[in-house]
Design a protein that fits this description.
Purple Acid Phosphatase, chain A, domain 2; 7-stranded mixed β-sheet; 4-stranded antiparallel β-sheet
Length: 182
């Protein structure tokens, strides 16, 4: 990775998507965990606001971090307070994150951003701690797997694939932000 937070447009020739990679390590640092310093947190927040304010020629805006804003395992209140208003204002299409050991897709009425957990790697799966009653079109499975993304001018397609290679869930977003379960 080139930095703790950065931007890239993909593909390089005639890009379709702007991706903002963020460092979501906001918890207090301990002997075995690294976290952003207060100065880094402030710098990243300023950078994020500036990046979102830039004119964008790509069709999609995707944001990625390690920790969730919203999840069936519990919400990240600090990240919700700091990032959610920006995602709404700038109509981010998707926020991808890991950390929670399952596969999820959450939608909220009136929110332009789809929230996707792709944390079904190879470690112990974590059971849900809290159900989100305000989420609709929710998918959540405690399974090992991965998330496949396909991007073209008409839509951004996201598929959760189980360890057996079978599709578990899929949805698509249009450049205008309309979401469709496939």
């Amino acid at each position: 990775m080139p930095a703790k937070w950065y931007r890239f447009d993909f593909p390089q020739a005639q890009p379709l998507v702007t991706v903002l990679m963020l460092d979501s390590n906001y918890q207090k640092a301990t002997a075995d965990k690294l976290a952003l310093t207060e100065e880094e947190r402030t710098a990243q927040a300023q950078w994020l606001k500036a990046e979102l304010a830039k004119p964008r020629t790509t069709r999609y805006l995707v944001v990625c971090g390690h920790h969730p804003l919203y999840s069936n395992a519990g919400d990240g209140k600090v990240l919700i307070n700091e990032w959610d208003p920006l995602f709404r204002e700038h109509a981010a299409h998707v926020y991808f994150r890991g950390h929670i050991h399952d596969l999820e897709h959450l939608e909220f009425e009136g929110h332009p951003t789809s929230f996707v957990v792709t944390g079904g790697g190879g470690t112990t799966l974590r059971k849900s701690e809290a159900a989100l009653s305000t989420a609709s079109n929710r998918f959540s499975q405690l399974v090992h797997g991965f998330t496949h993304r396909e991007i073209n001018e008409q839509r951004l397609t996201i598929r959760h694939i189980g360890a057996d290679g079978m599709q578990l869930h899929a949805f698509a977003k249009s450049p205008q932000g309309t979401m469709e379960i496939l």
